[in-house]
Design goal:
- The complex is a heterodimer of chains A (533) and B (300).
- Chain A has one domain: Cytochrome c oxidase-like, subunit I domain (Cytochrome C Oxidase, Chain A, Up-down Bundle), CATH 1.20.210.
- Chain A has 533 residues and is mainly alpha-helical.
- The longest helix of chain A has 36 residues.
- Helices cover 67% and strands 0% of the residues of chain A.
- In chain B, helix 1 packs antiparallel against helix 2, helix 4 runs antiparallel to helix 5 and helix 6 runs antiparallel to helix 7.
- Chain B is globular.
- Chain B is mainly alpha-helical.
- Chain B has two domains: 65 residues; 189 residues, Cytochrome c oxidase, subunit III, four-helix bundle (Four Helix Bundle (Hemerythrin (Met), subunit A), Up-down Bundle), CATH 1.20.120.80.
- The longest helix of chain B has 40 residues.
- The chains are: A mainly alpha (533), B mainly alpha (300).
- At the A-B interface, helix 1, helix 2, helix 5, helix 6 and helix 7 of A face helix 1, helix 3 and helix 6 of B.
Chain lengths: 533, 300
């Protein structure tokens, strides 16, 4: 019996297979991590191009470039691609690369399932993008696909959309089962739960959220399918159903989904800030408890997305107060990051710049969220650009910046090559200025009443919209610079050391840069506390 | 936590990419088949059938590989523990899928139907169909011409007529089968293979009787009770909740049938039978969902 295992182990020391089949058939967490990250990068440019179309149309009032119908398709697919095709796969890619290395495991727990989780995504998004060329055009009902827009009034392609969402959800669930199993079952001896790196903690809780809510999304799209094609009346008042029911089910999925897109960012930023502050993270335990509290609260706040839809007053109050409660654990995290930096030996390499920008700008998004949580105030803000400003602040300089920071921080580890620090900083400052130029004025036009998802607007909003569009184009171009920096590092970069960053702690930094194709086939010997942070 | 260094990381595998391809065909096939419903000359169903063939074929090979690898002794205790966690979290995801439908039923029963009937501060929805009276089950829908309500419902007829009521027999089948599969597992653990096989046969028979009775109930509903998918929210929730449950019973019964066939072929040892244990967990899960479902769909 053991002979088989030994024989197998010898195979492992072969490098990766050659050619395209390496990527098609791979079971290696590093390969799959790279696939996820490149997929997400490509989708970022596709979803970004749609944002450019939106901002070009909104550059001036009036209808210039695209038809309103096509504009709706752009808004919808921009949202769907950015949420399901960029942020989520990028975090899964980081999880694949980092979790096994951070907990001292040889690979993910279920490697073949891991490959399947990835290869479903190109299929799902291929179908979604193909709908642009089908009869009736692509989905046009917003990324939240409220019924009856997505049922009675939807284009025929909605059927493909529904099944694409189904397999996307299957991919997320399989990926999450893999992550949870890896974390619970594959940690090196001596790494207790409360000694796990914070990125691993954040993903453990994110994976739990994903398994809890992706099936609910599957339920929602199934009900849509039945209503559209099989005569049921879930969302039809005439049969005794209720279109508002769709919103409840969608947001029961949707709010935890929002935190799925930010919790791994918390983990990333914690690692980067402690490294470049040369201090261990302040309040490790409270960081863990804060992530867990945010996750649990996320299940009882969903209806704050629908204050204006009409709810009993008790419901409005419950969801208002429960939403405000989230500010407490989030505040704990923000102050812990600040305290980590306090009296630290700070240096400001590119990952640190993005991480600090994350803390500052994510907090802006969080505070505007707190404003939106106030039910009576939300009656004014609902469906205006203020909401657009709010969620772009948490998703772009929030989630996306954390992913960019993670790429700069771990790229030398992954590839073995340093990126160009000057170009990295240029990328940061261009992104930082343009992201604020893009999203900050949206607060003003939103408070003044500019509605979201409309291709035209009143003359009074013209100046700010022009600024926003210029900012958006600049931000889009800056990300091409990011692509250049990454490619330049891989092709011409200077060799990186194993440690890479002076202050970096954790198991992944004990490996070579780049790490061997298979790492930690023998679990590392942990001294108590070594792996923390 | 890792105890030794022999965690089995499989070599690269062609299975996942074929499965992903099967799922791509499934999306295209299911989408086009459903969009073409009612059209006379459509052959999109061929695509759908092909996708099923690919998916089931890959699953067959995949599971065979896992069984062979296990038989060759490639799997450590730690890897077996990974399967245990994987199955547990998969069942949790299934629980949440049903949760969405229970949530929908709870919402229409507690809020939207009473509101349509004019109750509470949301009574404005009542102005759409002022004549609508909120009752559960909703036998007359607000827009009864478009969604003709059912003539009869499936509610429990009263204790004395219990034996005429199919869900009673269904409950009996499923609860008993949860017991018999536990007996089968216990017999296997004690090495009594004959008893194990017999209890497995009893379990799957009960499972298929359940599916048959459920089919009979649907026939009754469509043929004699006017209870259809189009019969408003009552028919909608009735068929979707019982339908998805029935679908899961079918899956569970198929899983257990395969396990039984493998058992007859000599598979499973006293200490190594996680395939069977996982099937058994799934069966218990289906049973628990049914009990909740009987309570909220049929009884109350």
């Amino acid at each position: 019996m053991s002979a088989v295992i030994e024989g197998h182990h010898d195979d492992h020391h072969h490098g990766p297979a050659k050619g395209i089949t390496r990527w098609l058939y791979t079971t290696n967490h590093k390969d799959i991590g790279s696939l996820y990250l490149w997929f997400s990068f490509i989708m970022l440019f596709i979803g970004g191009a749609m944002a450019m179309v939106i901002r070009a149309e909104l550059f001036e009032p009036g209808s210039q470039i695209v038809s309103p119908e096509f504009y709706n398709q752009m808004v919808t697919n921009h949202g769907l691609i950015m949420v399901f095709g960029v942020i989520m796969p990028a975090f899964v890619g980081l999880a694949n690369w980092l979790i096994p290395m951070q907990i001292g495991a040889p690979d993910m727990a279920l490697p073949r399932l891991n490959n399947l989780s990835f290869w479903i995504l190109p299929a799902a998004f291929g179908v979604l993008l193909a709908t642009f060329f089908m009869e009736g055009g692509a989905p046009n009902f917003g990324w939240t696909f409220y019924a009856p827009l997505s049922t009675e009034y939807a284009p025929p392609t909605v059927t493909y959309f529904i099944f694409a969402v189904h397999i996307m959800g299957a991919s997320s669930i399989m990926g999450s089962i893999n992550v949870i199993t890896t974390i619970l079952n594959m940690r090196a001896p001596g790494m207790t739960l409360m000694k796990m790196p914070l990125f691993v903690w954040s993903w453990l809780i994110t994976a739990y959220l994903l398994i809890a809510v992706m099936p609910v999304l599957a339920g929602a799209v199934t009900m849509m399918l039945m209503d559209i094609h099989f005569g049921t009346s879930f969302f039809k008042a005439g049969g005794g159903g209720d279109p508002v029911l769709f919103q409840h089910i969608f947001w029961f999925f949707g709010h935890p989904e929002v935190y799925i897109m930010i919790l791994p960012a918390f983990g990333i930023v914690s690692h980067i800030i402690e490294t470049f502050s040369r201090k261990p993270i302040f309040g490790y335990d409270s960081m863990v408890y804060a992530i867990a509290s945010i996750a649990l609260l996320s299940f009882v706040v969903w209806a704050h997305h629908m204050f204006t839809v009409g709810m009993p007053i008790a419901g409005e109050l419950f969801f208002m107060y429960s939403t405000m409660l989230i500010a407490i654990p989030t505040g704990v995290k923000v102050f812990n990051w600040l305290s980590t930096m306090f009296k630290g030996s700070l240096t400001f390499e590119t990952p640190m710049l993005f991480a600090i920008a994350f803390v500052a700008l994510f907090t802006i998004g969080g505070l505007s969220g707190l404003m939106l949580a106030i039910a009576p105030a939300d009656f004014q803000y609902h469906d205006t650009y203020f909401v657009v400003a709010h969620f772009h602040y948490v998703l772009v300089p929030g989630a996306l910046f954390s992913i960019i920071a993670a790429v700069y921080y771990w790229l030398p580890k992954w590839t073995g090559y340093m990126y160009d620090e000057f170009m990295g900083k240029t990328h940061f400052w261009l992104s930082f200025v343009s992201v604020n130029l893009t999203f900050f004025p949206m607060h003003f036009v939103g408070l003044a009443g500019m509605p979201r998802r409309i291709p035209d607007y009143a003359m009074q909003f013209a100046d700010y919209n022009m600024i926003v569009s210029v900012g958006a184009f600049l931000f889009g171009l800056s990300q091409l610079l990011f692509l250049y920096v990454v490619l330049k590092a891989i092709i011409y970069g200077k060799k990186a050391t194993g440690q890479v960053w002076e202050g970096a702690k954790g198991l992944e930094w004990t490996l070579d840069s780049p790490p061997a194709y298979h790492t930690f086939e023998t679990p590392p010997n942990l001294e108590a506390g070594e792996a923390k942070g | 936590m890792s105890s030794d260094s022999s965690y089995y990381v499989p070599e690269s595998s062609k299975l996942p990419i074929f499965m992903a391809f099967g799922l791509l065909l499934f999306v295209l096939g299911a989408g086009s088949t459903i969009n073409d419903l009612g059209k006379e000359s459509s052959n999109s169903y061929i695509l759908l059938m092909t996708s099923f063939a690919v998916i089931w074929g890959v699953m067959f090979v995949w599971f065979s590989n896992v069984i062979n690898e296990n038989n060759k002794g490639m799997y450590s205790d730690q890897l077996n523990q990974s399967f245990v966690w994987g199955m547990a979290w998969f069942i949790f995801s299934e629980v949440m899928f049903f949760f969405a439908f229970f949530l929908a039923l709870g919402y229409v029963r507690m809020f939207s139907v009473p509101w349509l009937g004019g109750e509470g501060e949301k009574a404005i929805t009542n102005i759409l169909w002022p004549a609508f009276e909120a009752t559960w089950p909703v036998m007359v829908t607000p827009d009864n011409e478009t969604f003709p309500g059912a003539e009869k419902n499936m509610n429990m007829p009263g204790i004395t007529k219990l034996h005429t009521w199919l869900p009673f027999w269904n409950t009996l089948c499923l609860v008993t089968s949860s017991g018999t599969i536990a007996l089968a597992e216990a017999a296997l653990k004690k090495g009594k293979r004959a008893a194990f096989k017999s209890w497995m046969v009893v379990t799957i028979s009960l499972g298929f009787i359940f599916v048959f009775l459920q089919g009979l109930e649907y026939y009754e509903a469509y043929a004699h009770m006017g209870l259809t998918l189009g019969a408003g929210i009552y028919g909608t929730t009735f068929f979707l909740l019982t339908g998805f449950h029935g679908f899961h019973v079918c899956l569970g019964a198929i899983i257990l049938t395969i396990m039984t066939i493998r058992g007859f072929g000599g598979a499973f040892s006293e200490h190594d039978h996680f395939g069977l244990a996982a099937g058994s967990w799934y069966w218990h899960f289906v049973d628990v969902v049914w009990i909740l479902l009987v309570l909220v769909v049929y009884v109350f």
